[in-house]
Amino acid sequence: MSDRKYPLYTIKNNCMDCYKCVRRCPVKAIKIEDNSAQIIPELCIACGTCYRVCPAKAKQPRNDLARAKYLIESGKDVYVSLAPSWITEFKGLSEEKMIASLRRLGFKGVGETAAGAEEVSAHIAQMLSEKETGLFISTACPSVVEYIRKYLPEMIKYLTPLSSPLLAHCQMLKNKMGQDIEIVFVGPCIAKKLEADSHPELLSLSLSFNDIRQWFLEAGIIPEEIRSSVYDKFVMTKAQEGTAYPIEGGMIETVKAYDKTKTAYMMQLSGIQNIKRELSNMHPEQFNRPVFIECLACVGGCVGGPCISNRISGFDKRIEILEQSDFSQEAGKRSPTTDITLQYAQKQIIEKEYSEAQIRKALSMIGKYGVEDELNCGGCGYDSCRNFAKAMLSGKAEAEMCVSNMKQQAQRKANALIRCIPSPIVIVDNNLNIIEYNEKFAETFWQEEKHAEIYEQKDLRGADLRDFIDFTNLFSASLDLGQDIRREHVRFNNHLFDVVVFNIDKKQIVGGIIQDVTKMEMKKEQIAEKARDVIQKNLSTVQQIACTLGEHMAETEILLRSIAEDYAGSEPKSNIEKSIKSYEEENE
């Protein structure tokens, strides 16, 4: 099953590697893959905890709004099964206006899921009256049912063999309105999408209250302002005590309304962790009378569901729900009218077993070489280091999730860098007390006659930086400004230092790298002096060469001029002159 086909999925680019969903998931159905927390559908119970706690909104419920619109546009008769918790979600909105708003979206009619709850209560009351002993676990919450089927398969036989109130209501609607109608649930629950996926013959799809709000907005419907009519009533019958189901203990109150259940013990559990703790240590064979347990995955009941946006106090919600519930004498007298029997098969999760050697090897990857190293801090999301090691072996976790190990690695790397850098390094807090330093710092600034009495052990951690250097103003300025500071040629004890002060924890912790450049500057001066000497010598040489060349040039010019003149006086100037001279000599 692909990620987005399941009722919950992860928007990978939004995942911030905080592991909050891993820590809070009651069944650890999340694996870290490519630095993203992905849901494992085979392990998930769709309780919505990850969606509720994700700070980056990377976990999202599957949006079936487009499918709902398609059903409406198909021309089929589509009915809504409306969860009774709508009263606390759309606070102050009348029943008629809510129904009118949903019908304006195109729904044929609206029914109360609470009517199905009353049918379930009637069946349970009859079941308890017929039994002398035994354990009966409610199946109203699909997340609880998933949890028991996957993680407590030995308790499946104690699940009441009845469908949930929602599926019961769907069956009632189809019996009344026709088997070919389509039904859409609207409520606060993500797990109801599992029921839609598993029982498409009864439930077409499930929408959250947020989906309906979005649909109202897109359709331009303002429920508070809509005009209702006499036709805006719940189809079939108005629910009475069944509207108490969304609160913890509400189901028990409806069952108690039946006089024939007086001999049964009844109790409620909410929250998967509480359910896990109590059911795992239960011994039903020791019961001497019927025991009914109402189990709800969400703490406080459905009014605390993952898709509830109205965050008023749970107490206020409970009061509001009870005020809408009718526990009159008529309640508890009804008999079951619809066959809602349903058997639950197990989906047991078989966890792979790992040898002690494999576990120890995995633990060594996170720096746990002995029991004393196993902090069991829970930062990775698992309650013990061994369980985290098993998660790594199964491919659900990565070594980088171990906070303590990553911290130790970072500390080791930092210490190695501090130790290996040849310049003095010191790290101080906002009071200029030394937190960390390297040997070069102690070697450079430790003065036996000055510091031996103050720091006998020669351990400078906790020491005042001002006892060692007088340019602490650079550190104070960096702390006050929250900025890195660089200064060159700081003089101290006949030395020159280049100082860099950098922020580690802004305005709380700073570090300083202090480079002794005294020898370097001396070498620079020596080189500069030699360069000046060479330049001076070169200038003298050039001057001498220039003078010599000047004299030689003058002498050469005089000589050449003399030769030219002599040559000009003894030689004919041209061939014509030569011809004339030859002619004259012949004629003589």
Strand order of the largest sheet: 13-12-16-15-14
Q: Mind summarizing the main beta sheet?
A: 5 strands, antiparallel
Which percent bin holds the helix content? 40-55%
Distance between the terminal alpha carbons, to the nearest Å? Answer: 134 Å
Name the average pLDDT: 87
The outline comes out as: elongated
- The structure class reads alpha/beta
Short synopsis of the structure:
This protein is an alpha/beta fold. It has 21 helices and 16 strands.
Describe, in plain words, how this protein is organized in 3D.
Helix content is 41%, strand content 15%. The chain is of the alpha/beta class. The strands form 5 sheets. A 5-stranded antiparallel beta sheet has the order 13-12-16-15-14, sandwiched between helices. The N and C termini lie far apart (134 Å). The model is unreliable at 570-574 (pLDDT under 50).
Q: Keyphrases for this structure?
A:
alpha/beta; 16 strands; 588 residues; five-stranded antiparallel beta sheet; elongated
